[in-house]
């Protein structure tokens, strides 16, 4: 097996999945290109704002493509390249992309409502509040983790005080991205350029930002960058979508898609050997393939967080229902392709079945940099800066969306049911500035308190969120007289995977307690959270399952 074969098979598979399965889903559920979308009907210049197909695709792709599709497949290769490869292909086409598309579809068909409000409409108020609480707590963890990762990526100083120029250069470019994106957003709003002109201007701006950023690196330490990143999160969470996030994601998509394309072309041109065995075993280093493989690959195949983006922000920018398939289904397949490229690079860098030294990102960055330098003839310094910038873009384009979704989840958690007037306290906490500040304060506290103490539960929480979303969407499809059987296997499988992982976590904590190796600050916190996640999940499943299994429930209509 070679890298060319891995990438080639994946390209054909994902193309067929989109052209046949994706289009079949859209046809089965019904797409009306003449129907005015929520973005058009409710255009408020803030959260609801119609945008072009590629602009929304760029937002969706940039927001959902975090560190997962790179780190997950590389770590999962410890079981062999074949299990990881198969799960990315199967999970991506039939689990992840279906979930993302269905969440987007359900939201657009229901006034752009988020998953929490959709659950209230089709399941009930209790289900809504349980889900929103889960979602809000999840966003706190993601904000805390990504803020710390970004701050360390931008850190201008090495461990021994030496200057970290690539990180400082990427920091400058990232800051320019924020300012330039706002100018670009105003340009799009006022001038309304054609797609071609918009593309040309964007390319020129990206090149200019790289040129300036590489000449004027910003050398700040980690604490300073944490403040800056959280400040950016506040701005991104409250400013209109068209002014910052949409143009920023549009510009960032050139980096991310360029990285994916560069990786694909590089693997095809170099055609490296796969130096890892196809299958190592059902247990490696004490870790069982089930459920660890599926939890580890995470958003390389399926991620519950994606549904929050689909229903929270992207659905409010869809200008035509025809755009839902490329945005919801297509963006996820592009992310899966990145996962395959990362897997191919890691397997090529391995030696005699042993993974190369370094973190997954270091292995991936080294491979991409080699492609850019040896195959495309780019200077080594530029390649290093480009990859560092891509890594930061993966974080920045995710954390701003998460901050906005966290703010909206908090508001919707406080919001009374339709037809009920909000109290004075509810109005205060529903204010977008207050809800944003409170969300970021909790996230910042978690960042300083040591989010790594609970980070091991992130994968399980993310996949559990996917299971809860899938069962909620199955209820929506049933209640609107649409076929939903294609969601049944994914939702049951993801629930079993995540509950198994959480039970293993609880069992491990109990064993440590009995052996006298239990640390209250770490193991105790993980044990409590694991039990809380399991309890919360069971409550949501109980409410959703009751509606799903109730054959006598009258349909609410389309």
Automatic annotation (TrEMBL):
Chain ranges of the CstA N-terminal domain: 3-349, 351-501
Compartments where found: Cell membrane
UniProt cross-references to InterPro entries, sorted A to Z: CstA (IPR051605), CstA_N (IPR003706)
Key word Membrane present: yes
Keywords attached to this entry: Cell membrane, Membrane, Transmembrane, Transmembrane helix
Bilayer-crossing regions: 6-26, 61-79, 85-108, 129-150, 170-189, 196-218, 224-243, 250-269, 289-309, 329-351, 371-399, 433-454, 460-478, 485-507, 519-541
Name the UniProt record assigns to this protein: Carbon starvation protein A
């Amino acid at each position: 097996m070679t890298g060319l074969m891995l990438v080639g098979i994946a390209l054909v598979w994902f193309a067929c999945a989109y052209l046949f399965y994706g289009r079949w889903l859209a046809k089965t559920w019904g797409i009306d290109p003449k129907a005015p979308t929520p973005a058009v009907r409710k255009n408020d210049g803030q959260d609801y704002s119609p945008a072009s197909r590629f602009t929304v695709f760029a937002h969706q792709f940039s927001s959902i493509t975090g560190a997962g599709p790179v780190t997950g497949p590389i770590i999962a290769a410890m079981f062999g390249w074949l299990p990881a490869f198969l799960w990315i292909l199967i999970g991506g086409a039939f689990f992840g992309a279906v979930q993302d598309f269905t969440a987007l579809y359900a939201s657009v068909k229901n006034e752009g409502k988020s998953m929490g409000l959709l659950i209230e409409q089709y399941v009930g108020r209790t289900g809504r509040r349980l889900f929103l609480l889960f979602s809000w707590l999840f966003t706190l963890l993601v904000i805390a983790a990504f803020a710390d990762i970004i701050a360390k990526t931008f850190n201008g100083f090495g461990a021994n005080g030496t200057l970290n120029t690539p990180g400082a250069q990427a920091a400058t470019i990232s800051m320019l991205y924020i300012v330039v994106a706002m100018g670009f957003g105003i340009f799009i709003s006022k001038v309304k350029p054609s797609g071609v002109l918009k593309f040309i201007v964007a390319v020129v701006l990206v090149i200019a930002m790289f040129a300036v950023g590489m000449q004027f690196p910003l050398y700040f330490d980690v604490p300073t960058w944490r403040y800056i990143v959280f400040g950016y999160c506040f701005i991104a969470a409250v400013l209109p979508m068209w002014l910052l996030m949409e143009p920023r994601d549009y510009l960032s998509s050139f980096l991310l898609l360029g990285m994916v394309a560069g990786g694909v072309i590089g693997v095809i041109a170099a055609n490296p050997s796969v130096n890892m065995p196809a299958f190592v075993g059902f247990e490696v280093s004490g870790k069982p393939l089930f459920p660890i493989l599926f939890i580890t690959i995470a958003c390389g195949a399926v991620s519950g967080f994606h549904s929050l983006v689909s229903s929270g922000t992207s659905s409010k920018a869809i200008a035509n229902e025809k755009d839902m398939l490329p945005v919801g289904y297509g963006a996820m397949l592009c992310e899966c392709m990145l996962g395959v490229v990362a897997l191919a690079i890691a397997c090529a860098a391995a030696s005699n079945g042993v993974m190369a030294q370094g973190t997954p990102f270091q292995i991936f960055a080294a491979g991409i940099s080699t492609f850019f330098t040896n195959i495309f003839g780019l200077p080594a310094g530029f390649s290093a800066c480009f990859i560092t910038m891509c890594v930061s873009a993966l974080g920045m384009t995710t954390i701003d969306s998460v901050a906005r979704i966290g703010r909206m989840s908090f508001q919707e958690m406080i919001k009374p049911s339709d037809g009920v007037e909000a109290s004075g306290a509810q109005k205060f906490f529903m204010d977008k500035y207050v809800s944003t500040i409170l969300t970021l304060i909790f996230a910042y506290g978690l960042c300083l308190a040591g989010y790594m103490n609970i980070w091991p539960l992130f994968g399980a929480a993310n996949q559990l969120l996917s299971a809860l979303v899938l069962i909620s969407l199955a209820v929506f499809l049933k209640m609107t007289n649409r076929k939903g059987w294609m969601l049944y296997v994914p939702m049951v499988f993801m629930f079993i995977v995540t509950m198994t992982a959480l039970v293993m976590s609880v069992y491990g904590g109990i064993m440590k307690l009995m052996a006298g190796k239990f640390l209250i600050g770490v193991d105790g916190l993980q044990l409590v959270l694991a039990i809380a996640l399991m309890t919360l999940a069971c409550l949501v499943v109980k409410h959703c399952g009751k509606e799903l299994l109730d054959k006598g429930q009258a349909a609410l209509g389309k």
